[in-house]
Amino acid sequence: MMGETAKQVYEGLAGLFYIEDEVSDSLAIPKEYGMNDYPLIIQDRKMDASGNMQYNPNMTDTMMGLYGNAFLINGAISPYLEVPQGYVRFRILNGSNGRTYRFSLDNNQKFYQIASDGGFLEKPIEMSALRLSPAERAEILVDFSEVKAGDKIKLINTASDFVNSASSADDTKTKTELMEFVVTDKQSGVNEIPKQLTKIESTKPSSAVKTREFAMAGVGATLTINGKSMDMDRIDEEVNFGTTEIWEVTNEHTGKQGGMAHPFHMHGVQFQVLDRDGNPPPANESGWKDTILIQPGEKVRLIATFTNKGIFMYHCHILEHEDAGMMGQYEVK
Question: pLDDT at position 275, please?
Answer without folding.
Answer: 97
